[in-house]
Structures are given as C-alpha cells and as structure tokens.
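Pipeline run #58 for the internal structure catalog. This entry was flagged by the ingest filter as a single-chain record with no existing model, so it goes straight to prediction. Upstream metadata was stripped on purpose; only the residue string is passed forward. Reviewer on rotation: M.T. Logging verbosity set to normal.
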Amino acid sequence: MGFIMLEINSPSLKVSGHVKLYSFPADEVPSIEAYRKLKLDKSYMKKHLVNEGKNLVVATGVHILLNLISKADSVGISHMEAGTGSTAIVAGTSALETPLSPRVEITDSYRVANTVYFEAFFAKNDANGAWTEVAMHNAVSGGAMAAASIVGSFTKSTSNVTIILWGITLTAS
C-alpha cells in the first residue's frame, strides 16, 4: 500500500501586526484594574495615545505561531518589553537592541475576528527610560521574540504608567 500526500500551499495567507502605545498619569491609572475600567472610555484612550503603527512578526514569531498550531509546543506569547535601540526591525531580528528591564507579563489577551490582541501594563517603576523599541516574547527572559516595532521616542518614568496594545492579524485573501 502506498500513501498520498496532499500539499496545500497558500500564498494568500498574510500575518500582520499593529501596535499602540498609551501613557497615563500614574495617579489616575495606578493599576491594571483601573486601566480595565478606563479603557472603555474611547475619548480618554485617544487622549493618551502616544504612538501607533505597524510592527513586524519576526521569523521566530512565525515559529511560535506554527508550533502552537501544530501543538508542537504549548508556550505562547507571554511577555512584552521596551528598549532604547534604533536599529530597524527585520525578519531575522531576535532581540531588542538595547532592552530595558523588566519584561512584563501580558495582562490580557483576546481574539476579535482574525486578530489576537495582547495588552501589557507597565507600572510606574517598570522599564523607565526613553523608549524607542518594543517587543513581544514567549518568556520572561531569553525565549523567542514574536514581534517587534520601532516607536517614536517616548519617555517612561515613575510619573506615568504605560499600556502596550498589540494586535496580530491572520488574513486569507
């Protein structure tokens, strides 16, 4: 007996990403719980949006997605980090150029249609400095980078908290 191999090759599957960076006064949004209440107020959110743009799902991020789909691994995207580097993000990028500590755990993730959203809350003492790059990873340290983006210069300090809202979209066209 032989076997038949069916190969499906879909050049029309696209992975894309979008990232938003919000900054709030630390006294107004002291916790993730306070943010969850305020995020329903679209005008408040718009007022505190400091950066918005596309990002690149890097090669190791594609591997994370494929491993999850194939059940070869159960470790998904779990942490975000910020950094001060300026080197362009390319498919082979595997780490931020100049990361700030600490990486923070993703506080919320949810799916809407073809997009999975990830939110991370950087409290007033987390990753302070002049942010120019952000990334998502599958571990608190080491691990694999899933996606990254260069963001306009933004200063994170103890007087503000920051939310990164990241979306990864899969589309078939």
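catalog note: The two ends are 37 Å apart (CA to CA).
catalog note: Strands lie at 13-25, 49-57, 79-83, 104-112, 115-122, 129-137, 145-156, 160-172.
status: ready for reviewer M.T.
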